[in-house]
Structures are given as C-alpha cells and as structure tokens.
Write a structure and sequence with these properties.
GO terms for molecular function: FAD binding; UDP-N-acetylmuramate dehydrogenase activity. Residues 11-181 form the FAD-binding PCMH-type domain. Cell wall formation. It catalyses: UDP-N-acetyl-alpha-D-muramate + NADP(+) = UDP-N-acetyl-3-O-(1-carboxyvinyl)-alpha-D-glucosamine + NADPH + H(+). This is UDP-N-acetylmuramate dehydrogenase. By secondary structure, the chain is an alpha+beta fold. The protein has three domains: 2-63, Uridine Diphospho-n-acetylenolpyruvylglucosamine Reductase, domain 2 (2-Layer Sandwich), CATH 3.30.43.10; 68-216, Uridine Diphospho-n-acetylenolpyruvylglucosamine Reductase, domain 3 (2-Layer Sandwich); 229-334, UDP-N-acetylenolpyruvoylglucosamine reductase, C-terminal domain (Uridine Diphospho-n-acetylenolpyruvylglucosamine Reductase, domain 1). Helices cover 24% and strands 27% of the residues. The protein is built from nine helices and 21 strands. The protein has helices at 25-35, 88-97, 116-119, 161-164, 190-196, 206-219, 245-249, 269-274, 305-323, and strands at residues 2-3, 15-22, 40-43, 49-51, 56-63, 68-73, 77-83, 100-101, 122-123, 126-127, 132-139, 144-149, 169-180, 233-236, 242-243, 258-259, 265-266, 283-284, 287-289, 296-299, 332-334. The strands form six sheets. Strands 6, 7, 8, 11, 12 and 13 form a six-stranded antiparallel beta sheet that branches. Strands 1-2-5-3 form a four-stranded mixed beta sheet. Strands 14-20-19-18 form a four-stranded antiparallel beta sheet, with helices on one face. Strand 19 (287-289) and strand 20 form a beta hairpin. It starts with a strand and ends in a 5-residue tail after the last strand.
Length: 339
C-alpha cells in the first residue's frame, strides 16, 4: 500500500488501501466510477490536509491533469480553463508573464487549481472567487458531468459548495476571467502596502506585487522548502474567526477587527493564539508551531499526524479558555477530529 506521507506537505499520513494516479479527464472519471460507492480521497499537491496515521481505507485518486486552454480579447481580457491538477502558483506565475492581472495577491499559495475553489483560497485582500467564472465537475451521486457558474458555487470565506459536499463533486477544471494589465487594483492590505512602499489605496505593478508577496510568505515560513522543516506545514492551520459584533466588542483593544457585510466581524486567529499563550516554537513530540508564524503547525522531524493534531488541539483550547472563541481548522482533516 502507498504511504500517504510521501504525498503531503506535512510528511505525515498512513497508507491508502488503493492509490491511483490520473492525468486525463477520462482517467479521472474512470477511477471515480471504478471506486463505486466506496470512499475516495482526491489528492492534488497534498498541501492543505492532515491525514491520519491510520491512513485512508478507500481509494486515493491523485490528479495531475494540468491542461490549459485560453481565449484572449484585447477588450474583455482573458478566459482561461485550467485542469484541476495544475500547480496553483505555476498558473499564477504564467498568467502574470502573459500580461494578465488579478491573481498576483494569491501568489505563493501551495496546492493545485482544482483545490482552489473548494477552500475559496484568499490572501492580502482578495479571494479566488473574484476571478472564477465556471467550475466543471463530476457528480458522483448522479454519475454525470456538471458545470457550476460562479453564483452556483456558493462561495464564502474559505468555503464553497464543493467543501460542503466534498464527497459528491470532483473538480475537473476551473475557468477564470482575468483582465489584461500591468497594475494591480488598489492595495487595501496594510502589510502588503508597507512591503511595497506605497500608501493604502495606491496601486503597484503586478510583477512587483507578486515579488513582495512571495517575500512576505517566505519570511512567514509559508513557502514550502524541502530543506527547511519550519516550512513543512499545511499553511494556515486555522481560519480567521468571524464572530458577532457583540463578541467582537468584548475583545481587548488592539485585536484586529474587519467588519463584514452581514454585520459580523472577522478577527485574526494568529493574534488570538499569540495572546492566549501560544508561542512560536512551541512543540509536542515532533510537531511544532513554526518559529516564523504561529498559524503554521509544522513537522520538525519525525512527527506523527496525532502529534500535529494534539498540538492543534492544545492551541485551540488555549484560545477558547482566554477568549471564548473556538478556532476552526482550515486544513482538511482526513480520519482525524479536533475535540
């Protein structure tokens, strides 16, 4: 059996009962149909998951379909249809080289294009849902192809229809609409504006913005480096909590607060952790809080999935005790739960 630790950025995870690699749409559908009603786990880059030490008692389908189709119009911009197995950051880099703007703030996020809509990935003031026009899937329930418009995807903060019904829809390809241009939209994220040396609300070149973001992510240990155990993570382990305005008013002065359109308030999971006594470098067996960023839980060498889950649970309990807020995992927990 295939050991899944070979295919995850955390380098943990037990064996898969069955492991299949697929590179074309026909192969993807054939593998799904061959699995019948038994459990399947779709695997791309393995960068946003924590797999149990017991592994996965079903079929793991690793998708590497990375085809790219594009239509470019000088007025309307570019429509790009990208295979689910395409590396996300490679796609972002290619789009910028071709003169397209929009995805630069999402540079450096590990994973594949097919995983991007599931989590509605986002960073530095933008989310991928802003650029998606269509998501084409295979519907396991009806055993048929199904295409979703942007509105039908039910995108929200770090979520989507595909996350809510993860075991039903398998993403085959994603279509994007990007504008042609050399400048970003106005930069609204203070940290990024500072890195670029501009004021909030000003624009920067797309190329310079991508470079700045990659540097920021590297300093936070959020760029995967095979030689640096401090980057052996699944990215941000927890999502930023969205709480009621009443609960937000109870937070200490200085706690980050971003008002939402529905009247609720988003705050920072990292700030809550740091002010609840979770420290960079804290460890439990082989699991460790990154020394660069408190939101990254890492495998410092020899960690098990249980070690990482236990460290996450400790951090979660500290935040709950101090602030009464329960952090939710951003990573996909496979065969594991945070109690």
């Amino acid at each position: 059996m295939t050991d899944l630790s070979q295919y995850t950025s955390l380098r943990v995870g037990g064996p898969a009962r069955k492991f299949i690699e697929v590179a074309t749409e026909a192969e993807i559908i054939s593998a799904i149909e061959s699995a019948g009603d038994s459990p399947i786990l779709i695997l791309g880059a393995g960068t946003n998951m924590l797999v149990s030490d017991d592994g996965f008692d079903g079929t793991v389908i690793r998708i590497s379909d990375d085809h790219i189709e594009s239509e470019v119009d000088a007025c309307s911009g570019a429509t790009l249809k990208i295979g689910a197995g395409q590396n996300w950051d490679s796609f972002v880099a290619t789009s910028i080289l071709r003169g397209f703007a929009g995805l630069e703030t999402l540079s450096g996020i590990p994973g594949t294009v097919g995983a991007a809509p599931i989590q509605n990935i986002g960073a530095y003031g933008h989310e991928v849902c802003e650029f998606i026009t269509r998501v084409r899937t295979y519907d396991r329930k009806n055993r048929a192809l199904k295409t979703f418009t942007n509105a039908e995807c039910n995108f929200s903060y770090r979520s989507s229809l595909f996350k809510a019904e993860r075991h039903r829809y398998v993403i085959l390809d994603v279509s994007f609409q990007l504008r042609i241009g050399e400048l970003t939209e106005p930069i609204t994220y203070a940290e990024l504006a500072s890195e670029l040396g501009i004021a909030i609300g000003e624009k920067a070149t797309v190329v310079k913005t991508r470079t700045a973001i990659l540097e920021l992510r590297a300093r936070k240990g959020m760029l995967l480096d095979p030689t640096d155990h401090d980057s052996w993570s699944a990215g941000s382990f927890f999502t930023n909590p969205i709480i009621s305005a009443t609960d937000a008013a109870k937070l200490p002065a200085g706690a980050p607060q971003w008002p939402q359109s529905d009247g609720r308030v988003k705050t920072s999971a990292a700030w809550l952790m740091e002010h609840a006594g979770v420290n960079k470098g804290d460890s439990l067996s082989g699991a460790r809080i990154s020394t660069k960023h408190v939101l990254a839980l890492t495998n410092s060498g020899g960690a098990t999935a249980s070690d990482i889950a236990s460290l996450a649970q400790e951090a979660r309990e500290k935040v709950k005790k101090v602030f009464g807020i329960t952090l939710e995992a951003e990573v996909d927990l496979v065969g594991l739960n945070l109690q």
